[in-house]
């Protein structure tokens, strides 16, 4: 395998970056049963068939947006007439006819997706340690989650174990047991360790040594009995811990939470996915001066009440999120010399790698039903969903897989998808396993689509706007009407503040209450705490209760969050601009300079928020909207960036790898990228941030290589 001077290798007419070609032939293909030459010719055929259509779909997005811009612009600031708007959107094909009633028919779907309800993690694929933490978050210590967070008021005293704090934790956990798996008589607080007699005997499943296994609402609970443990020694029953089945599923992310801009980045990402599918991924890290190695957890084995063996997964069921249809990748050039669509490459390679799981050659099994789970983000409408369905057909044919082995998760995060959600589900009805809502991207697309209709309300007011309520309700209502209950996940979005677990515990119970059988959380600890919500709420009973609800009218979804007639003070405008600018800068500086796509970024009030690229889309589009409509001037926007650059520099002062942005702003690539997201925001396709971020990150990597 010889690379040319440009580092590319010819494979069946495709020009493939040498690192990617070597990875696929030396690591990914062996053990799959797929012949390398057939693989390359099959990939070339898929690109020949689907790359032109991919380009046509993107061109249709642009054409629709141009017509929408003209229609809103012609209003001249007048209020939008809902009926006229709906007629117009139907005339141009933005809205399609509702499909006849149907039921999704996905088969071979694992219980974690179809028949259980619980938390979901999303983890950047480029960080092996984080990936392993998330995969292993299937089980979590409730004691640890309570002891180290703000769920219980106060903090531990001293450097060692605080018995008073421990007593609060134990009381909270035993009250949880009383509500979820009550004893036939008395309270778990008074339990003396004798064989427990439960009010519902079938909740007692078995044991592993002295560990007792319980089950409620489909989720398992372990009571860890250890009288030699410092906590167990002082407990009447010897109870040393309560472990909860927590993150049932994890999305391993190639998209919004990573900065992958070239072949080397893509290979690093694919290599981690391969390690997960083969079960041999490891990560070494330093802790307290010692080098530790983390790997995937084994399955858990118990003896059932009748003496048979129970085997439960030790790890989350893993999805992989591919990139959307927009971006191309320099890792592959098509015969005409253009970069290849990145989403097509992701579909082929991530499915190929998952063959190691399906063939049973790895250390563990991910899907016990024999499926591959791919989340497809940022699709606009049923035509794009149908494109994905046919692409996955072609990938299955290439890899010799049965039809619909590849399952798809459809992220309901674009306005045209939300407005045509039933038709989107219909386009993938034989492989659909997931829909969800996402506030940030969906709001970013709301603002970009209706950019010329007028100035938008403040960002903090968006969650209380009429269209958001309709969006969240319609997602569940349409999902249930399409038969997803018992077949697929209906999901809700992320809790972004990992240090505010008390607030999460108070508020995020609303997600299972809606009938959503999963929701995103920012950490394994949050997953364990959020798992308690799925004990408090019987999600499938909630779905049954909502099954007959009429779908919220489309008119409410299409209500644009405009601020006509609102006159903000100069202080309010400045506050909004600075809040947005700080959020953009704080995230972009890590993305561009360090290649970090997801991390806990301090907000303007120094509260750490888990941020990914969706943060930029909403903030940059909001600033661009206010500039377009004269709420803020370009000079005021620049002033906000200058002021907030100094703040972000101060927030990152302890990071030895950080490059300051304030002062030499013109020479800071990160600063220039952040500013471009706003000042070029009107021209970015659907308001996406990827094109600009990739351009500046590639420039930063080239500069770093040149300086090394």
From TrEMBL:
<dbReference type="GO" id="GO:0006099">
    <property type="term" value="P:tricarboxylic acid cycle"/>
</dbReference>
<keyword id="KW-0329">Glyoxylate bypass</keyword>
<dbReference type="Pfam" id="PF20656">
    <property type="entry name" value="MS_N"/>
</dbReference>
<feature type="binding site">
    <location>
        <begin position="129"/>
        <end position="130"/>
    </location>
    <ligand>
        <name>acetyl-CoA</name>
    </ligand>
</feature>
<feature type="active site" description="Proton acceptor">
    <location>
        <position position="321"/>
    </location>
</feature>
<feature type="active site" description="Proton donor">
    <location>
        <position position="612"/>
    </location>
</feature>
<feature type="domain" description="Malate synthase C-terminal">
    <location>
        <begin position="572"/>
        <end position="658"/>
    </location>
</feature>
<dbReference type="InterPro" id="IPR048356">
    <property type="entry name" value="MS_N"/>
</dbReference>
<dbReference type="InterPro" id="IPR048357">
    <property type="entry name" value="MSG_insertion"/>
</dbReference>
<feature type="binding site">
    <location>
        <position position="122"/>
    </location>
    <ligand>
        <name>acetyl-CoA</name>
    </ligand>
</feature>
<keyword id="KW-0808">Transferase</keyword>
<keyword id="KW-0558">Oxidation</keyword>
<dbReference type="Pfam" id="PF20659">
    <property type="entry name" value="MS_C"/>
</dbReference>
<dbReference type="InterPro" id="IPR006253">
    <property type="entry name" value="Malate_synthG"/>
</dbReference>
<comment type="pathway">
    <text>Carbohydrate metabolism; glyoxylate cycle; (S)-malate from isocitrate: step 2/2.</text>
</comment>
<feature type="domain" description="Malate synthase TIM barrel">
    <location>
        <begin position="318"/>
        <end position="548"/>
    </location>
</feature>
<dbReference type="Pfam" id="PF20658">
    <property type="entry name" value="MSG_insertion"/>
</dbReference>
<feature type="binding site">
    <location>
        <begin position="438"/>
        <end position="441"/>
    </location>
    <ligand>
        <name>glyoxylate</name>
    </ligand>
</feature>
<dbReference type="InterPro" id="IPR046363">
    <property type="entry name" value="MS_N_TIM-barrel_dom"/>
</dbReference>
<dbReference type="GO" id="GO:0000287">
    <property type="term" value="F:magnesium ion binding"/>
</dbReference>
<feature type="modified residue" description="Cysteine sulfenic acid (-SOH)">
    <location>
        <position position="598"/>
    </location>
</feature>
<feature type="domain" description="Malate synthase G alpha-beta insertion">
    <location>
        <begin position="161"/>
        <end position="190"/>
    </location>
</feature>
<feature type="binding site">
    <location>
        <position position="413"/>
    </location>
    <ligand>
        <name>glyoxylate</name>
    </ligand>
</feature>
<dbReference type="GO" id="GO:0009436">
    <property type="term" value="P:glyoxylate catabolic process"/>
</dbReference>
<feature type="binding site">
    <location>
        <position position="321"/>
    </location>
    <ligand>
        <name>glyoxylate</name>
    </ligand>
</feature>
<keyword id="KW-0816">Tricarboxylic acid cycle</keyword>
<keyword id="KW-0460">Magnesium</keyword>
<feature type="binding site">
    <location>
        <position position="294"/>
    </location>
    <ligand>
        <name>acetyl-CoA</name>
    </ligand>
</feature>
<feature type="binding site">
    <location>
        <position position="441"/>
    </location>
    <ligand>
        <name>Mg(2+)</name>
    </ligand>
</feature>
<feature type="binding site">
    <location>
        <position position="257"/>
    </location>
    <ligand>
        <name>acetyl-CoA</name>
    </ligand>
</feature>
<dbReference type="GO" id="GO:0004474">
    <property type="term" value="F:malate synthase activity"/>
</dbReference>
<comment type="similarity">
    <text>Belongs to the malate synthase family. GlcB subfamily.</text>
</comment>
<dbReference type="GO" id="GO:0006097">
    <property type="term" value="P:glyoxylate cycle"/>
</dbReference>
<keyword id="KW-0963">Cytoplasm</keyword>
<feature type="binding site">
    <location>
        <position position="413"/>
    </location>
    <ligand>
        <name>Mg(2+)</name>
    </ligand>
</feature>
<dbReference type="GO" id="GO:0005829">
    <property type="term" value="C:cytosol"/>
</dbReference>
<feature type="domain" description="Malate synthase N-terminal">
    <location>
        <begin position="21"/>
        <end position="71"/>
    </location>
</feature>
<comment type="function">
    <text>Involved in the glycolate utilization. Catalyzes the condensation and subsequent hydrolysis of acetyl-coenzyme A (acetyl-CoA) and glyoxylate to form malate and CoA.</text>
</comment>
<protein>
    <recommendedName>
        <fullName>Malate synthase G</fullName>
        <ecNumber>2.3.3.9</ecNumber>
    </recommendedName>
</protein>
<dbReference type="Pfam" id="PF01274">
    <property type="entry name" value="MS_TIM-barrel"/>
</dbReference>
<comment type="subunit">
    <text>Monomer.</text>
</comment>
<dbReference type="InterPro" id="IPR001465">
    <property type="entry name" value="Malate_synthase_TIM"/>
</dbReference>
